[in-house]
Design a protein that fits this description.
With about 350 residues, this protein is mainly α. It has 15 helices and no strands. It is an enzyme of class 2 (transferase).
């Protein structure tokens, strides 16, 4: 990690401590400790297992793509990719650092940069598509509950959805209408010529056109491998379900056995959508607030509500950060049986 990233990590941990401390301001410590000691360990371990499955399945997706398109990739190296992504997503605004960090991690295994970029883009497309699908389902089931509890929060949910939906539309445009995408990019880049050198604008257009062509080529190959695509879609769906189920098992561990698994899961989907639009890394502050508001009707005990929020935040956010720190120290295995490719990505 660079010095800048270490500083960001330290600030995020400090911010988390401050938020946790503020959340505990009205809770007696002895009551919180009592609630924690009486927790059902089996259900809490199930919540932990859900997060481990979430990480493992994303690593499996990476391995499947690399094995299919390049060569044999060890699961240890493949698992390292999403863990590093969790770390850098967690310490950068809008989770912007995850993609570059994954690319660097794959380069360390000896994977060509163009091929690695292609695989990460394919993984990203499937992941974003599954997020949108899950959100639409959650919107139908849980949105009315969110509006009744906090109408202004619903605006953030819709805005978050529009951002994810726009990303998917943009990627699909590149996949199916590359020529139209190139024309749209020229329109978007028009202001560059007004305020900068014309040569810079032309250079950007050439680079983007090349990337659009290469991405289109790779996406056509992926769509042609429909069995591989279907396998990755199913794995990603299960992966996200494992993540979305974490609050439900935390509630069971606190004794709320009558919790509605469908509603709790849908509310978590909506909370995740809210978190995604906060510029602060991890949506710190907004995530904790949204959780306590939406789950306050289910967890009426204030001490247990705060404890549920703390456990949820530790498992779904800080666990990934610390796992990513460990992953950085692990030396990846080199790619074996590297296959030739017909893609032009390695020419980029």
């Amino acid at each position: 990690m660079s010095r800048r990233n270490k500083i960001a990590l330290g600030l995020i941990i400090l911010l988390g401590v401050v938020i946790f401390g503020y959340s505990l301001r009205d809770v007696k410590l002895n009551i919180l400790i009592r609630d924690f000691t009486t927790i059902h360990q089996g259900w809490l371990l199930t919540a932990v297992l859900c997060m481990l499955v979430y990480f493992a399945l994303e690593g499996l997706v990476v391995k499947i793509f690399v094995d299919e398109r390049i060569g044999q990739y060890s699961f240890k190296s493949a698992l390292r990719i999403p863990l590093i992504e969790q770390l850098f997503n967690g310490i950068t605004p809008f989770s912007s650092g995850g993609q570059p960090a994954q690319l660097i991690a794959m380069l360390q295994s000896g994977i060509d940069g163009g091929r690695a970029s292609s695989i990460l883009l394919m993984k990203f497309i499937v992941y974003q598509a599954m997020i949108v699908v899950n959100f639409l389902i959650a919107l139908v089931i849980g949105f009315h509950y969110m509006v009744s509890k906090m109408s202004y929060l619903s605006l953030f949910v819709v805005f978050g959805f529009l951002i994810h939906f726009a990303v998917i539309i943009g990627l699909f445009m590149v996949m199916f209408w590359p020529q139209f995408t190139k024309k749209a990019l020229r329109v978007v880049l028009s202001p560059v010529g007004w305020f900068g050198h014309q040569e810079r604008k032309v250079d950007m257009i050439v680079r983007l056109d090349t990337k659009v062509d290469l991405f289109y080529e790779e996406s056509v190959q992926l769509i042609g491998q429909w069995r591989l695509l279907l396998k990755v879609i199913l794995i990603t769906f299960v992966q996200l379900m494992s993540y979305y189920l974490v609050p439900y098992f935390i509630m069971l561990s606190l004794g709320y056995t009558q919790a509605n698994i469908v509603m709790i899961t849908c509310l978590h989907v909506l909370i995740v959508m809210v978190i995604s639009i906060f510029p602060i890394p991890g949506g710190s502050g907004g995530a904790e607030y949204a959780f306590t508001i939406l789950f306050g009707s289910y967890i009426t005990n204030s001490s247990k509500l705060v404890l549920a929020m703390l456990l949820w935040r530790i498992l779904t956010y800080y666990l990934g950060i610390f796992a990513g720190m460990i992953a950085l120290t692990v030396k990846p295995d080199k790619l074996k049986n590297n296959r030739p490719t017909h893609s032009k990505l390695n020419q980029d």
